[in-house]
Design goal:
single chain, alpha/beta, TIM Barrel, nine-stranded mixed β-sheet, 13 helices, globular, binds zinc ion
Length: 466
């Protein structure tokens, strides 16, 4: 057997838990072998990280690859999506797999394995999405937990898309998840409010992009969050609210946690970067996503909730469609495929807007993009930390370089970007995945198919630590 390659990264500023300190880091094979003053240490490869931050690889537990939705399909597949992820310092992703008509949950997992088949550049996992809560589906929930996919998602809206689950069924799903040691992920928007607002606006001729936001008001999100917290209260399931855009939602989550409920929420990069003003632009369809972008005071409150922990992490909700598909709704906001391509820019944007602007500490930044997703989604201690023994998923980051982000500087498979001409502080220099250098500057060195399936197991005891 050949000896594993050793790489010594010396002189960098390492973020480990709440500690930020100058440390050398030794990689042996796929793992981190040691941290400390390793100046006397021999290694096959030596990397000078003087002046650089050494961060754990980012984890994006909210992406949609090959997602068939609103008459189109997302352009990120397991190759293009994980390529963009790698450039963005993301070394693990978790994708959603919708249960199709007549399909079992096992089928949804199998489809993702088929889609991946030798394509992924980084490690990947799956959240199955329950769309048909039949007795057969309910009986499969335990199998999903055993198959390493213990976090299952449901939608409270998109009835026409065949995704919506009724509240009564949510209770049944929650009970099964609770008993199996799983977690319920919820898209929280109240369908009844949306089904009243959207046609009313269209009938009155209000079809411009901004009416997307008006048709999905805060109250629809807040009501749905209250409803699913009530389900968590009744059933005791661990509840995770995905892509929370409403700052009132953070208050509701904070109150639920104070009550002792196991309720957690994420927000997404775009809610922290953009406001609903973007949808007033001529090309406003670029920023149509659901829940919609909200106003500036709401955004300020989201940042505050992210700092104080009522929001636990930031994900991308990457849903990358071609411009041609976005144009389906050029004259009708309700025809625009909902979603923003975002798998690549998240780490850069959050460092620049969060850390460089003094809104997030460096340890909190690492928590929200890596450590907390690892802890919550069953990837720790293997992922999300630079502690010895963990996978050597590492980003070397230059905190000082200034550059401008736009479509030309990104590697996503879409032909437009919502992140246009954004001044950025800090740049990813290189990325390691399980000890292998996969990104070096502008070059990707990863081979297709090197990404591994993440067989996840939740630790439901760690609510207090997040
Ligand atoms: Zn999503």
């Amino acid at each position: 057997m050949t000896k594993p390659t050793t790489t010594l990264i010396s002189g960098g500023t390492v973020v480990l838990g709440q500690t930020v300190s100058r440390q050398d880091l030794l990689i042996q094979g796929e793992r981190i072998a040691a941290l400390g003053d390793l100046s006397g240490c021999k290694a096959d490869v030596k990397v000078d990280a003087e002046g650089l931050l050494v961060l754990p690889g980012a984890i994006d537990p909210h992406v949609h690859f090959n997602d068939v939705f609103m008459n189109t399909i997302s352009v990120h597949d397991y190759y293009t999506g994980t390529l963009a992820a790698a450039y963005g310092g993301v070394t693990s992703i978790i994708d959603f797999s919708n249960q199709g008509p007549g399909e079992s949950l096992m089928d949804t997992l199998r489809h993702k394995r088929e889609e991946e088949d030798g394509q992924a550049l980084v490690d990947w996992g799956v959240h199955p999405v329950i769309t048909q809560p039949t007795p057969e589906t309910l009986a499969e929930i335990r199998l999903m937990v055993e198959a390493g996919a213990p976090s299952l998602k449901c939608y409270m809206t998109y009835r026409d898309e065949g995704l919506m689950v009724e509240l009564e069924d949510l209770r049944r799903i929650s009970e099964r998840l609770r008993d199996a040691g799983g977690m319920l992920l919820m898209h929280a928007e109240d369908n009844q409010i949306l089904e009243e607002k959207i046609p009313a606006l269209i009938r009155s001729g209000f079809t411009a992009p901004i009416y997307h936001a008006r048709s999905r008001p805060l109250e629809s999100e807040n009501k749905a969050i209250r409803d699913c917290i009530q389900v968590a209260r009744e059933t005791g399931v661990r509840l995770f609210i995905v892509h929370m855009a409403s700052a009132d939602g953070a208050e509701l989550v904070g109150a639920a946690r104070a009550e002792g409920l196991d309720v957690i929420a994420e927000t997404c990069t775009h809610y922290l970067l953009f406001t609903d003003q973007m949808m007033e632009r001529k090309d406003g369809i670029k920023w149509i996503c659901s829940p919609p972008l909200r106003d500036q005071p709401n955004q300020d409150r989201l940042w505050a909730a992210l700092r104080d922990g009522r929001i636990s992490m930031v994900t991308s909700d990457d849903a990358a469609y071609l411009w041609e598909a976005k144009l389906y709704g050029a004259d009708r906001f309700d025809k625009v495929p909902n979603g923003i391509p975002g798998i690549e820019p998240r780490l850069n944007l959050l460092y620049s807007e969060g850390v460089a602007k003094g809104r997030l500490s460096l340890p909190r930044f690492v928590e929200v993009i890596s450590s907390t997703p690892a802890l919550l989604f069953g990837l720790a201690p293997q992922k999300g930390s630079l502690a010895p023994g963990a996978d050597a998923d590492i980003v070397l980051f230059d905190p000082h370089t200034k550059w401008t982000m736009n479509q030309n500087t990104l590697h996503m498979a879409t032909d437009y970007s919502a992140y246009e001409d954004i001044e950025i502080t800090g740049k990813i220099k290189s990325v390691y995945s399980r000890g292998e250098l996969i990104i070096e500057g502008e070059r990707c060195l990863a081979e297709k198919g090197r990404g591994r399936y993440l067989h996840r197991q939740l630790d439901l005891s760690m609510r207090a630590s997040i």
